[in-house]
Amino acid sequence: MTLVKFNNRTRNTAPYFNNVFDSLFSEALNKNLTINKVPGVNILESETDYKIELAAPGLTKEDFQINLKKDTLSVWAEKKTTETEEKKDYTRKEFDYYSFARSFVLPESVDGEKISAEYVNGILNITIGKKDESKSATKEIKVS
Fold first, then answer.
1. What average pLDDT does the segment 7-15 reach?
2. DSSP SS3 for 131
3. Dihedral, CA of residue 94, residue 99, residue 113 and residue 121, to nearest 10
4. For residue 115, what is the enclosing H or E element?
């Protein structure tokens, strides 16, 4: 087997065209929106809670399912739509299916009973309360 090294810069036959074609082809594969539809997430921390902002426009609050299992918070969304257009002698039917799943490992300072979610203007806001650590923050231990 013989290895042949190919370099566009050393060839005289349209190196610029080959580079443009390669870049267009790779960008088309990398930017295909149907392949990767995972929504962006912002995570904020304050003294009393954590907030997760998940950008998921075009959904309704009924499309989401949020579960807490041990220390993992899981968010699923699924939306199915069917559009039918009837004209003279044909019928066109288009399906649109959108789903995603995200999981977050929560720290030990989280109180599982203080979790709420709200969907407003295309953003799912999840608020996760922290445990009240002021009760157990200081403890005096006597030596016997």
1. 51
2. coil
3. -60
4. strand 110-120
Q: What's the full length of the chain, in residues?
A: 144
> Residue 92: beta bridge partners?
85
pTM for the model: 0.62
> How many Å apart are CA 115 and CA 50, to the nearest integer?
9
Tell me how far apart the alpha carbons of residues 18 and 40 are, in angstroms, rounded to a whole number. Answer: 34
| pLDDT tens track for 63-78 | 999 999 988 999 999 8
Query: Could you tell me the two tokens for 11?
Result: 């060839």
How many Cβ atoms are within 10 Å of 113's Cβ, its own excluded?
8
59 by Cβ neighbours in 10 Å (0-12 / 13-18 / 19+) ranks as middle
pLDDT: is 95 or 60 the higher one?
Answer: 60
Helix (H) / strand (E) element for 125: namely: strand 123-130
CA torsion, ordered 103, 105, 106, 107, to nearest 10 deg: -170
Residue with the bigger pLDDT between 106 and 17: it is 106
Note the pLDDT of residue 67: 93
